[in-house]
Design brief:
heterodimer; A: 266 residues; mainly alpha; 2 domains; B: 197 residues; 30% helix
């Protein structure tokens, strides 16, 4: 069975719904009508481009292209993590911390999955690598962005309590323990919720796609389980890495709280 | 009077350079108009802010002492105290019941919730909280600003007793010149980050 092809008219009808939503949000003065339309246009252009790129990738199988594609995905995800922070780390750290954490978690987990679980030959087969990496990066990005935002926001509001502990001779990691835990917890909640309702309330995107594409439902279910586990591990380890790097960076070598590094002058 | 804390050509923020020596067993008063750099000076001595020049405790340079140990030896008492846990007791490792009584609390205070404390109670408890590590230098920023005269006397007495029994020293910031005259052997005036007396 093949997928029923979608015509431009079908897509335009769906787009009409988004335009209606934009009109409504403008009459409600939500102030996000423009943002909504830009996001919708971005999604359209980006996904069509991805379709084109993947078609080329699937034809010729040179691993260098896969690496280039992965690096672009990682870079954009790193930028997106930074853009979602209210208090951003200054300098290269701002971009570097989220990107490094995603690299460490998403890339290694994708590699492990491709070589030991899915065991596709060769491991860089684009039909597997790109979608897997995309799903991992997308979700890890969310987890890391939420954790980091929670951490920096917490420091910005509770710096006096943290400094009180430093002044009493507590170590920096002691003074930030509670905030660190809260941030990691917030970063993990989305994937925990996703796993809790998977299959009952929500039918996850990947499984839906496979079923629409004609895969046996049982195979689709197994792939979805695998992906959920990988995402949980990816966002968990990624958030731990990011929060560790960020909280260390909030203090200097004399264990002073350095709010100036996230652009705050107390 | 042996010297405990020495500042030589000490700079902090855009202030200084200043020289200062604090000897064991006594207090040095510090006054000056708002914005003269008094609180920032205390923060810098506690190594909570960056500083330049030379800063030594017992002839040991600040940079040679691990930062958390430095702050245990040199306790900074901010003019407003902050508490990170729910109950008072969670901020204390050893309950020094005697000191609690000296400042007019009974032992039950450790079970009190922090957000129900009055500003005066917070200030007195913050003093006890900071004395737990038995610091050699107390940096006191308006330690009795929110207190009535009874409790102000209690605080002054507690600090004097502590300094004597521990051979410690205090740098005492206050707008109350009478208090500085009562509690301190010498007084310095800070103006735009420099001593003018």
């Amino acid at each position: 069975m093949n997928v029923v092809p979608l015509s431009p008219v079908d897509l335009s009808l769906a787009a009409l719904l988004v335009v209606l939503l934009a009109l409504m949000s403008r009459s409600l003065k939500l102030g996000i009508a423009a943002t909504l339309l830009i996001a919708a246009s971005r999604a359209t252009v980006q996904l069509l481009l991805l379709g084109l790129v993947l078609r080329t990738l699937f034809d010729g199988l040179h691993p260098a292209w896969m690496i280039l594609m992965s690096i672009i995905m990682l870079g954009v995800a790193g930028y997106e993590v930074l853009a979602r922070q209210q208090h951003r780390f200054r300098g290269t750290w701002g971009f570097g911390m989220g990107t490094l954490s995603m690299f460490v978690s998403s890339f290694s987990i994708a590699l492990i999955a491709l070589t030991t679980m899915i065991q596709v030959e060769p491991w860089y087969t684009p039909q597997y690598l790109i979608p897997l990496l995309g799903m991992l990066l997308g979700n890890t990005m969310n987890g890391i962005a939420i954790s980091l935002d929670r951490l920096t926001h917490g420091v910005a509001t509770q710096y006096r309590e943290i400094e009180a502990q430093l002044a009493l001779g507590h170590r920096w990691h002691h003074a930030i323990t509670t905030l660190r835990r809260d941030s990691l917890r917030s970063g993990l909640i989305p994937i925990i919720n996703a796993m809790t309702t998977a299959g009952i309330v929500s039918l996850p995107g990947m499984m839906t796609g496979q079923i629409l594409g004609g895969s046996p439902p049982m195979e689709a279910a197994k792939y979805q389980i695998l992906i959920l586990f990988l995402i949980a591990a990816g966002s968990g380890f990624g958030s731990v890495t990011a929060v560790w790097l960020a909280s260390r960076r909030l203090f200097d070598d004399r264990e002073r709280l350095r709010l100036d590094r996230i652009g705050i002058n107390p | 009077m042996s010297t405990l804390l020495t500042l030589t050509g000490f700079t902090y923020h855009h202030f200084g350079p200043i020289d200062l020596q604090l000897g064991a067993g006594g207090s040095t008063g510090l006054h000056g108009e708002s914005g003269a750099g008094k609180s920032l000076l205390l923060r810098a001595i506690a190594d909570l802010d960056e500083h330049g020049g030379k800063l030594t405790l017992d002839n040991q340079d600040c940079s040679d002492v691990p930062p958390n140990q430095w702050r245990q030896h040199i306790a900074y008492f901010a003019s407003e105290s902050f508490w990170w846990a729910d109950t008072v007791g969670e901020h204390f490792t050893a309950s020094n019941a005697h000191d609690l009584n000296t400042l007019g609390f009974d032992n039950d205070v450790l079970n009190w919730r922090v957000h129900r404390l009055s500003s005066g109670e917070r200030q007195r408890l913050a003093l006890l909280r900071g004395l737990q590590t038995q610091p050699q230098v107390l940096l006191l920023d308006e330690p009795s600003a929110n207190l009535d005269s009874v409790n102000r006397d209690r605080v002054e007495k507690l600090v004097a007793t502590y300094l004597n029994s521990h051979g410690a020293t205090a740098l005492w910031v206050s707008h109350d010149r009478d208090q500085l005259a009562r509690c301190c052997q010498q007084t310095r005036q800070l103006h735009q980050g420099r001593f003018i007396t």
